[in-house]
Amino acid sequence: xxxxxxxxxxxxxxxxxxxxxWCPGCGDYAILKAVQRTLPQLGxxxxxxxxxxxxxxxxxxxxxxxxxxFHTIHGRAPAVATGIKLANPELDxxxxxxxxxxxxxxxxxMMHVLRRNxxxxxxxxxxxxxxxxxxxxxxxxxxxxxxxxxPLGSYDHPAKPAAFALGSGARFVARGFDVSKKxxxxxxxxxxxxxxxxxxxxxxxxxxxxxxxxxxAAPKGAEARQLWLEDGEPMLFAGGTKGLALDAVNLxxxxxxxxxxxxxxxxxxxxxxxNRSLAHMxxxxxxxxxxxxxxxxYDHPRPTFEDAVIAERAQASEGKQPDLAKLLATGQTWTVxxxxxxxx
Amino acid sequence: MATAATAPQDGISDTPEAVVxxxxxxxxxxxxxxxxxxxxxxxxxxxxxATFPDFPAEIRAPTGTLFGxxxxxxxxxxxxxxxxxxxxxxxxxxxxxxxxxxxxxxxPGGLVIADTGAFTKRNLDKAHYDSNPLEDxxxxxxxxxxxxxSEKTIEAVKPYGLGNKDALRSKNMWxxxxxxxxxxxxxxxxxxxxxxxxxxNPDIADANIAALDAGHAYGETAELSGxxxxxHIPPVLSEPGLYRTVTGAEAVSLGLVAGAQLAKLPMFFxxxxxxxxxxxxxxxxxxxxxxVTTFQAEDEIAAICAAIGASYxxxxxxxxxxxxxxxxxxxxxxxxxxxxxxLVIVNSQRGGPSTGLPTKTEQSxxxxxxxxxxxxxxxxxxxxxxxxxxxxxxxxxxxxxxQYMTPVMLLTDGYIANAAEPWKVPDxxxxxxxxxTFADADSLGLAGQGxxxxxxxxxKGDTHQSVVQxxxxxxxxxxPWIRPGTPELMHRIGGIEKAQGTGHIDYSPDNHQAMTxxxxxxxxxxxxxxxxxxxxxxxxxxxVVGWGSxxxxxxxxxxxxxxxxxxxxxxxxxxxxxxxxxxxxxLRGFDHVLVPEMNTGQFKTVLRDxxxxxxxxxxxxxxxxxxxxxxxxxxxxYFDGIPGNEGGEVPANDQQLPNTGSLA
Lengths: 344, 664
Description:
Chain A is of the alpha/beta class. Chain A has helices spanning 27-42, 77-87, 99-105, 107-116, 161-167, 183-192, 214-217, 222-225, 276-284, 305-317, 324-328, 338-343; strands spanning 49-53, 68-71, 92-98, 120-126, 129-130, 136-137, 172-177, 196-202, 226-229, 236-237, 242-247, 252-257, 292-299, 333-336.
C-alpha cells in the first residue's frame, strides 16, 4: 500500500474496453471482479496504480484494469516492479503472476522481491498447471499429475507457494481462492500491509486442471475444510466444532474437537498474525488431515526496501552539491598552461 | 621511438621520446597498485601515456606460479601516445614466474630489474626453470639489474617493527621508488597517497614511505656504480587545460551521469557483479548525490528488468555487464525494444564464448550487439575507442535512448575498461542538453478526456473506450514517454505485439508488418554524424577500418605507413548501428578495405552485408590488443606487390601477456 489520499471510484472505473480473453468459466474472471470491486473500497487512484505481470494466463490481467499496466516477460515481473517502485515510490503496485511464472521461471526474482521487502501486493494465481502453453505440469502440480509433458504422471514434489514466500522472508502471507467471497478482505489486508504482501490465490483452470481445489473450495462441506484465520480469534472451523491446538510434544498443530463452543477447554490456539512460528506451522499443514488455512497467515511489517534506498540516497547526498564540473575534475589533476606551452 | 616495429634498438637512449615499462609479479605482489601509482606520477610529470593492466582471473593464484603472474604495462613519452606499447624497454620481475612469462616480450638490450630474493629454488621450480636465469647467462642480451629487493625492503622498514611477512608487502613500494628515480619522478604525490590510504594505520604508511624512499635512494647509489642511468622524458606538448587520468570504467560512469543530467533525468543503474563491468557499478554507487540510484540485482536479468521498470516510471534506466551477462539480458532487451522505452546497456566485452577469458579483452560481442536477439529487434549500437572516448560515447548513448525511446548498447572492452590515459577534463557546459519532456494529457491533446471516453460510452456499452495513444509516433518515429502517475493517460504496454497507436494486443498481419517496419525505421533514422577519416586522405589504396579499442594501434600503424608514402587512411567507426550514412560511399572510394578486429571478423561481415564491398578481415583472438607492428605489417601487404596475401589472422604473440598456457 501507499500513503495516499483516497479517491472515489466505482467498479466500472477500473474496467477497460478490452475484451477479456480467458476461457469461459476460468477462475481468473472471479479474481478480476474481486480486484475491481476492492480497488474502489481501498480508495485507490487509477493514475497512481500500476499492475505488473509476467507471462501466462494470469499475466493478461493488466489489460483488463483501467490503470497503468505493464505486461512484461516470463518470470521477471518482480524485477520490473522493483525498478518501478524504486524510480517512483509513490506508485501503488500490484504484481500478478502464476505458479509457473512466479515459482518456476521467476522463482529467483520472487525470492528476492520478498526478502528485500519491496512494497507491493503480489497476487500469485495458483492453478497447479501451465495453462497458456496448454496444460503441462507446473511446480505446484501434485505428484502423479498427468499432463502432455507427464503422460505417466508427474513425479517431482510440488512447491508450496505460501511456505516458499515465508521462507524467503515475506512479512505478509495470505491465501484465498478465486470464487471466495472473502477474497476482497484478503486483498484489503494485503494493501494495508506496507511491504511485499504475498497472496496465494487458488484458481480453477477449467480446461487443464478442472476442480483441482474442489476438496476445500467447493461450497458443499466447505465449512469443515476451510479454516479462515482472524487475528486474535481462535482457530476454529466446521462451525466451531473443531479447532487447531498445539501438540507440544511434536511441536505441531493438531485438530481437536470443540464441545459446546468451549474452545479454551479444547486448547485451541488464538491466531496471532505476528507470530512467525505459527505461520510456519500453518503453511506446512497438510490439507486432508487438516483444513486449508485461508485468510491472513502472517502479517508483521518491517522497513521496506525503497525506504532504505531513499534514506541511503538522502544520507549520501547530505550537504553535497551535485556539481558535474567538479566531479569530472575529481582525483589528481594537473594543468597544462598556454604560457608553458609556448616556452616549449 | 620506443615502440619501434622495425628492428629493435639496442638499449635505451638517454632521452627517448617514449618508454615502455612492464611491472610483473605475483597477483599478490601489488603490481596493479604499483602500476597505478607510477601512472599517476607519470601523468603529473606531464607525459602522455597509455596503460595495459593484465591480470589473471584468479584473485590470489598460488604464489610463484606462472598462471598467477599479474602485470601492468605503461607506455609514456614526450609525444602523443595511443597504445600501451608493443615490446617493453624495461621489465621489472618480482619473481621467476614473472620473468619467465614476460622475458620474451622484452626488447633486446632492454633492462631487466629482478628481485634475487625471490629467485629461490622453490620459486624457480614453480616457474619451471632448471637453473637460475639471473646467473646462467641466459639473459645476456639484456641489461640486468638483479639484487635482493626483498632483503633491502626488510632493512628499510625495520624501524617500524613489522614481521618479515608484513615487511615484504612493501616490496612493491621499494620497486616503485626505484622506478620513480629511474624516470626522475616526484615522490611527494605518492607519499601523500600512502598517508591517505593508510591514514588509520600511520605505521604502515610510514613503512611504505620508507620502502619507497629506500628504493629511490638505491637508484641514486646504483647510478654511481652500476648499469642503470636516470632517463629524462620531457613533458608532451598538450593542449592547455586541466587534466586527469581516467579509465574507461570511470569515463563510462561519468558519461552516464553527465548524460542523465543533460536529459534532466534521475538515473537508475541495475547491475550484477561481473568482470570487467563491475567497476561501473562501484563508481556509480558513490554518486548518489547526482540523482543516481544503484541496484545490485539478484541476477543479470533482474538488473536489466529493474532498469526497464525504472525507465517506464520516468528514470533513465541503465544496466551494464560483459558478454555472458549480456546474453542473459537478451530477452529483456527485446522487451525494451517492444515497449519502446529508453535504456542504456553497457557491454564491457571480454574474451568468449561462455565464461571465456574473464580478464582479457576481445571485441567478439559485435554480432550479439547488432543481431543477437529473437525477432526483428533493431537497436542502436555505439562503440568507444578509448578510455576517454567512453565519456562522450556514454552521453551519446543516453541521447539516442531518450530521443528515440529505444535501448542503446554501448560497447567497450576489458582493455578500455581497465586502461588509464590522461584526459583533458571537459567542460559540461560544452555539451548540448537534450532535456526530456514527459507526455501529459495536454501534450497529447487529451486534457479533460480522462484517459477514457468522457461519456463512458465505449464499444462494450458502458465500459471505457481508450483514447490514449501510447504508440503514436513523432517525426522521428518515437512514441511518447508517459510515466505512470500522469493523470488521464492510463494505458497498458507489454512485450506482446501492440496495435499501432493504442498499444492494445494486436496480432493481425498488417499490424505486425507495420510495427516491425516502424521499429526498424526508427532505429535506422537515428541522427548520427557523418563518418570522418581519423588519419589520411579519402580515395587512396587502402582504408583501414576499425571500431572500439583498436583505435590506438591502428592510428599509429597508419601514421607510420603514411610516413613511408603509402596511400592509406584510418577510418574509425563509433556508430556501429545504424552505420553512418556516408560510410558506404567513403569506403567505395578506396581500392581496398582492411578491417582489423579482436574477433574472427564480425564488423567485416556487417560492412560486406551493408555495402557489398570486399572488406578483408585482419583478426586477432589471443585476448591481447593489437600491436602496432602487427598492423603495420598487415598494411604493408597491400603494397608489396604480392597478390592474395592481404588480411588474415594475427597469430598469438608471446611478446604480450600472458602466455602462460604454453609455458605452464
